[in-house]
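quick one if you have a minute, typing this from the bus. theres a chain ive been looking at and ive put its sequence and its fold in token form underneath. please have a look and point out which stretches look like helix strand or loop to you. anything you notice is useful, everything is just below.

***
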Amino acid sequence: MRYRITCLFICLVWISGCGQSETASNQPSVQQKSIVELSKKETIPASFFPDPVKIVSIGDSLTQGVGDSKDNGGYLPYLQNKLEKEPSITSVEMINHGIRGNRTDQLLKRLDKARIKEDIKQADSIVVTIGGNDIMKVFKQNFSNLELNQFDSAKIGYEKRLRQILDKVRSENDHAQIYLVGVYNPFSKWFADFYELDMIMNDWNESGKEIIEEYDSAYFIEIADIFEKSEEDLLYAEDYFHPNDRGYELIATRIYNDMDITTIGKDTLEASAKGDDDQE
């Protein structure tokens, strides 16, 4: 077991770098008079026009979009395009707070930044990608003496920090939908014999599922199967570790399919309506 995981780590280090119309008559019609009179009597509330839906993404390289050939933010533009085709959504604003290499401890600290806190507070939905670099840290620190129980120990800390991350998000925004994206094994296609890494990824994903279920309006997005079962080349050619454009497109499709579209922006509208009532 120790030899197999050590070999996997060596392979990992080698290939990764971790106009207005006119009427026939000049006289206004009855219908036109009614509209004019109505406009004098009533002012259309601001809440009649929906605010743009705001999606805030936080996390690691999957959020930053490492591997995206156009450097547009990975899965975000694909998700934005899908959401903007929804008849109930007028426009979508995507905010990217992803940093390559971030672990749970680093993301936890970044959540104290005023800009990120303000964006989370205004969000309709929040997408989180985190955990993969926590796993990689175990590899790097123990590559010469790797054992499965080392990942079990690290997972305890990961679970604690993940809860703290979600608690911070909820303290800033108690209504937004939260989506936690799972981790995946980038080597499943190339090193199928190293089943231990699949075991580790599956174990950590199960922890993510259990933790996210502790929160209201929070959901887990499974993506491991996308990379494991696809016949397509979904990895970035320069490192065979991060998703390529097609990989990010499939991740966006998975997130979109799991999103509760009917409630996105609902709280934004209710807040606007409440603001209108308060001003009367």
Q: What stands out?
A: The chain has twelve helices and five strands. The longest helix spans residues 148-172.
